Amino acid sequence: MQTYANYIAGQWLVGPSQRPNVNPSDTGDVLGLYTQADSEQAEQAIAAAHVAAPAWGLSSPQVRADALDRIGSEILARKEELGELLAREEGKTRPEAVGEAARAGAIFKFFAQEALRLRGDKLASVRPGIEVEVTREPLGVVGLITPWNFPIAIPAWKIAPALAFGNAVVLKPAELVPGSAWALAEIISRAGLPDGVFNLAMGPGSVVGQALLNDRRVNGLSFTGSQATGQRVAMAAVQRGAKFQLEMGGKNPLLVLADADIEAAVNCAVQGGFYSTGQRCTASSRVIVERAVYARFAERMAEVTQALRVGHALRPETQIGPVVDASQLQQDLDYIRLAKEEGARLLAGGQTLTLDWPGHYLAPALFGDCDNAMRHCQEEIFGPVVSLIPCENYEHGLALANDTPFGLSSGICTGSLKHAHHFKRHSQAGMVMVNCPTAGVDYHAPFGGRKASSMGAREQGSYAAEFFTSVKTSYLQA
Fold this sequence. Notes:
The protein is an alpha/beta fold. It has two domains: about 5-250 and about 455-475, Aldehyde Dehydrogenase, Chain A, domain 1, CATH 3.40.605; about 255-435, Aldehyde Dehydrogenase, Chain A, domain 2. Helix content is about 40%, strand content about 20%. A seven-stranded mixed β-sheet has the order 15-16-17-14-13-19-20, sandwiched between helices.
């Protein structure tokens, strides 16, 4: 079985231990053994980035643009192969996985051009004879900590802007899904970057992640993951004065009004709540439905949910793949049991499935007659579990939608332009969708939320410069 090494200072280095990468669709399928860095190897990665950062930060933007364009071109040329790898290790259906790989390629292509578009300002001084210039400079070394649910897209949307704006990178991908990150690192290793500009350090968060948090040579920390871990990242960054950016999940509402197209609204709810096995921070896990159409909507959504085809991620007929691993499956089942105990009514699914392959299969669970105060309506489950919550009218629905500690994404299905505009302005979320699923965003637009969902500058698009650069104001006596 092949062993996949870390990439540090331009060299592939095997660590002291390895971790098997297991296919959740078929647990007998092991994709390989992936190196786990120890504290010494994590320190090597940080040191390599620290040495490489100054020269890379002063490099020509054309050099950076060309390197990123080469990376993006190879990802796009190999999207089918990379998508199959992603589907095998994470459990997304093949079409979703290929789409994610293509998105990663598009992200690198976009930031190749952003390297050339980094702007500053020339200001007139209030004092005669003085010029004022505002420019942006790289942070230096950035530590990127990525989750398992988007194992190539999220590393891409952190790595690409970091490199485009002249930073040196240490990437720590999720232990559960190292394959896509390794494949991306292998492509990056051949893009012509100087040694140490990009480093891959696979390993446990308690070792590699903690090294990034503690080391004063790491100037910025970009993290996507759980709220509890995000809070630890923030505390460590504040204590030593590092810049930080956190994305920490959501409990996203989809509000369905009586004037909505019911079929379209059900499609939005099913797509947003269950696709990618509900393992998206933007998933619409709370569907708030106006009482006048609640019974009709619940009946139709239950029919569609029951008909969803759960199966092996690489099978063409599969709509919903497996849960990512046994631990996540148990968490989903615990919340399903809790929802029943809280008095929610199970309308469809919720049971484990035994298929032709030994995998972590769960029938998508739809609960009706939920109260927004129930724990399963307030806590992020991160699985294919959707709760239907009745509301009396638009105002009541908006209040329920905002009644959550999170604020990442929200949506409304309505035929009313008045309510759509009001919801866009008054929804307490960083991203708002009208008549489309809450999950699914463009790679060139800013991504991020409010409240407990996010802290720091937005990710993606031109807004990524806010985190990965530092503003400098210069005064010159003419």
